[in-house]
């Protein structure tokens, strides 16, 4: 596997951006891989939470080791603190990540597949919201996974004010009264989605976001989405996300090879 830090320019945002990429390559570590193996490679876009950036998955988890024997590319971008959203202050992070970024990846890495059935997205906390939002708001991704996701439909203002002040949230989403049914409401997006992705969600039983996950998953089930919902003892922290990202890899259609199975 090659690990690359890619600096590129985003026309949508009007600024330089950075993404980390884990890319399969021919090497002695994978003697069965051929040039054919590494054509049309599936890709997982891995999204960070509120306190993270493009490097946080690499720093806090075993993601590079986990995919060492699996021909899948991992793309780790940053949305800063913008919630994968076209913000009210004029920076269109949703467009930059949902539409521009896959085009940028295709131009820089032609061996990575552009096929919907080979494009996946996953994230934690804010990134879990982003993963479902990107998958339900576009036709780009066939699988989407949320770990401890902020799967908000109609957010309660008082809950959000526990995390940040009102002016911050208004800068991202606008007024809370207009959130439900908007393009930022993942449950509203689920009702109008053209090509339904398969969905996966995990959350710890002691996580403060579990109640909104229960509501969101119930709604998605009522809408007849193909969704796997799993819970286990746990809180909102990296110890659990490091464990659960392997579960996501097992769930994705990528022929995941666990390292411990190798001789």
Task: Quickly list its features.
Esterase-like, globular, 8-stranded mixed sheet, 263 residues, single chain, Rossmann fold, alpha/beta
Structural class: alpha/beta
Strand content: 15-25%
What order do the strands of the largest sheet run in, or round the barrel if closed?
1-2-4-3-5-6-7-8
Report the CATH topology name.
Answer: Rossmann fold
Q: How many strand elements?
A: 8
GO molecular function: acyltransferase activity, transferring groups other than amino-acyl groups
Protein name: Carbohydrate acetyl esterase/feruloyl esterase
Pfam families: Esterase
InterPro entries: AB_hydrolase_fold (IPR029058), Esterase-like (IPR000801), Mycobacterial_A85_antigen (IPR050583)
Structural description of this entry:
This is Carbohydrate acetyl esterase/feruloyl esterase. InterPro entries: AB_hydrolase_fold, Esterase-like, Mycobacterial_A85_antigen. This protein is of the alpha/beta class. The chain has a single domain (2-261), classed as 3-Layer(aba) Sandwich (Rossmann fold), CATH 3.40.50. It contains nine helices and eight strands. The protein has helices at residues 56-60, 63-66, 93-108, 126-137, 157-160, 166-173, 186-192, 210-222, 238-251, and strands spanning 2-10, 15-23, 43-47, 73-76, 119-124, 143-147, 198-204, 227-232. The chain has an eight-stranded mixed sheet, with helices on both faces. The relative contact order is 0.14. The model has no long low-confidence stretch (mean pLDDT 93).
């Amino acid at each position: 596997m090659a690990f690359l830090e890619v600096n590129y320019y985003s026309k949508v945002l009007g600024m330089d951006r950075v993404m980390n990429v884990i890319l399969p390559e021919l090497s002695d570590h994978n003697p069965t891989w051929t040039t054919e193996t590494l054509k049309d490679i599936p890709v997982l876009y891995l999204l960070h939470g509120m306190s993270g950036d493009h490097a946080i998955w690499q720093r806090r988890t075993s993601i590079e080791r986990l995919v060492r024997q699996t021909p899948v590319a991992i793309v780790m971008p940053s949305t800063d603190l913008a919630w994968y959203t076209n913000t009210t202050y004029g920076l269109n992070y949703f467009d930059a990540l949902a539409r521009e970024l896959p085009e940028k990846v295709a131009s820089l890495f032609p061996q990575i597949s552009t096929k919907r059935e080979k494009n996946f997205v996953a994230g934690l906390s804010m990134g879990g919201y982003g993963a479902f939002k990107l998958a339900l708001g576009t036709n780009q991704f066939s699988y989407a996974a949320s770990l401890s996701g902020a799967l908000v439909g109609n957010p309660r203002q008082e809950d959000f004010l526990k995390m940040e002040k009102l002016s911050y949230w208004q800068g991202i989403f606008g007024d809370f009264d207009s959130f439900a049914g908007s393009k930022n409401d993942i449950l509203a997006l689920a009702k109008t989605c053209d090509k339904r992705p398969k969905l996966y969600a995990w959350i710890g039983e002691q996580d403060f976001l579990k109640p909104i996950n229960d509501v969101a998953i119930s709604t998605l089930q009522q809408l007849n989405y193909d969704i796997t919902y799993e819970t286990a003892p746990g809180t909102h922290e990296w110890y659990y996300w490091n464990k659960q990202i392997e579960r996501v890899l097992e769930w994705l259609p990528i022929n995941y090879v666990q390292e411990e199975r190798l001789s």
